[in-house]
UniProtKB/TrEMBL annotation, chains A, B:
Gene3D superfamilies: Winged helix-like DNA-binding domain superfamily/Winged helix DNA-binding domain
The keyword Transcription is assigned to this record: yes
Domain HTH hxlR-type per the UniProt entry, residue ranges: 12-111
Source lineage: Bacteria, Pseudomonadati, Bacteroidota, Cytophagia, Cytophagales
UniProt xrefs under InterPro entries: HTH_HxlR (IPR002577), WH-like_DNA-bd_sf (IPR036388), WH_DNA-bd_sf (IPR036390)
UniProt entry keywords in alphabetical sequence: DNA-binding, Transcription, Transcription regulation
A GO molecular-function annotation: DNA binding
SUPFAM superfamilies the record matches: Winged helix' DNA-binding domain
Name the record gives this protein: Transcriptional regulator
């Protein structure tokens, strides 16, 4: 039972929700970084090594944005050298299955 | 059984598939237009009326891009005035359930 079934007039999708979702996945790297972290705890150095194609400045900016959006948690350990680790937040984990499916869209249109 | 289960090193997501998927959903309007067409046949005039916030030029450009990407089918009927109708292609229809779920990402981060 949905409010919108079998309507003839177009039902406008919620632009606020679309905008919010696109903030998380837009840009070439955000979705990639989220999928790379996945269910694991990833050190900054690991992420940096896994992303040779982007500069450290871009990576740092994207990580900062994903932390600000509430997708990633960042923990800094006061070691020498300092250790910085990223994990998905609980909201980030909730979206992971959907984000993985976005690859499926690419697969459908790639072949 | 997947190739990547229980790995310790990050498994790089497929950038080509991510890029392909983002072409379909990126920008403020593509996802919106696809969801607006949905399972229906939509006249250009209907879409235009449902999207008062974007100019006709932007709408025409986005529709053209979605046709070129293979997401939308465009049919022109030689009537007076000419009738132009859009439907999702079969590939577009295949992605519709995933695209609807993207709204869920917005919902998760909106609250």
């Amino acid at each position: 039972m949905t409010k919108n079934d079998q309507h003839d007039l177009p039902v406008n999708p919620d632009l606020v929700l679309i905008g919010q979702a696109l903030k998380i996945i837009s840009g070439k790297w955000r979705l990639y970084i989220i999928l790379l972290v996945g269910d694991e705890t990833r050190r900054y150095s690991e992420l940096n090594e896994s992303l040779p194609a982007i500069s450290e400045k871009v990576l740092a900016g994207e990580l900062k944005a994903l932390v600000a959006l509430g997708v990633l948690d960042r923990k800094v350990y006061a070691e020498i050298p300092p250790r910085v680790e990223y994990t998905l937040t609980s909201k980030g984990r909730l979206t992971l299955p959907i984000l993985k499916q976005i690859l499926e869209i690419g697969r459908i249109f790639n072949y």
